[in-house]
Amino acid sequence: MKHDSFNESVEMYLKTVSELAAGDGLAPISALAQHLGISAVSATEMVHRLGEQGLVDHVPYKGVTLTLTGAQHAYRVIRRHRLWECFLSEHLGLGWQHVHDYACQLEHATADEVADAVAAFLGQPAVCPHGNPIPDRNGRLAEPDDEPLSEWRPGDRGSLSRVFPESFLLLDYLAMHNIRPGRTVIVTELAPFNGPMMVQIGGLPHALGHEIAAHIYGIRQNDQPI
């Protein structure tokens, strides 16, 4: 039985704003529309409705951010999503790159009580298979202490921590190249004119475009041997 807190459309908007406005940023309406595959007009209309419900704050010409209430609802959706990713990966043996899309479908059909039961069954996992933290049942989300590889410089070294935001195309590409959280990483070169970032991940060389590097996070450990 589907939970009755919010409809799927509202949940998708809140979750997407949370992803695009990570940290203290704002999610541009154009980016929100592109991510959801809708027109900017439709996105703007929905943002206004969510604003009237006290779920988002809209700064004209800049973007959207979640209110405290909106963030709590978004984190409940994210909690269900990431718990299902853990279950699908660990107990059904589904591929690391596939569980994100399956969890996107299950997150809207899961009551919070079911999510709590799944969490208990899994032993209260702290992160999903892609390394992203799982909000607790009260809607609190720990902020990871990491940085996207796009902000690293030649000579930086450390370990990969997570992939964010997730998408099937990105996860499929990373799976094909065996790039995932826990792997060691060393930045060896930055090509000029916004060229690719040359890295060693798990001891193997890779060339990462700027957009891909911006979605792969890591923890720098420059003072420790790799």
Quick structural summary:
By secondary structure, the protein is α+β, with helices and mostly antiparallel strands. It folds into two domains: 143 residues, Arc Repressor Mutant, subunit A (Orthogonal Bundle); 74 residues, SH3 type barrels (Roll), CATH 2.30.30.90.
What do you see in this structure?
The structure is a single chain. The chain is an alpha+beta fold and 226 residues long. It folds into 2 domains: 1-143, Orthogonal Bundle (Arc Repressor Mutant, subunit A), CATH 1.10.10.10; 147-220, SH3 type barrels, CATH 2.30.30.90. Helix content is 39%, strand content 17%. The strands form 2 sheets. It has a 6-stranded antiparallel beta sheet with strand order 3-8-4-5-6-7. Helix 1 (8-20) packs across helix 4 (68-90). The radius of gyration is 18 Å and the shape is globular. The N and C termini lie far apart (49 Å).
Please, how many helices? Answer: 8
Widest β-sheet, arrangement of strands: 3-8-4-5-6-7
Give the tally of β-strands.
8
Distance between the termini: 49 Å
Mean pLDDT: 91
Q: Helix-strand pattern, N to C?
A: HHHEEHHHEEHEEEHE
CATH topology name of the largest domain: Arc Repressor Mutant, subunit A
Secondary-structure-derived class: alpha+beta
- Look at the structure and give the CATH class of the largest domain: Mainly Alpha
Can you identify the CATH superfamily of the largest domain?
Answer: Winged helix-like DNA-binding domain superfamily/Winged helix DNA-binding domain
Tally of domains: 2
How does the major sheet shape up? 6 strands, antiparallel
- Beta fraction of the residues? 15-25%
Query: Which architecture of the largest domain would the CATH scheme give at its second level?
Result: Orthogonal Bundle
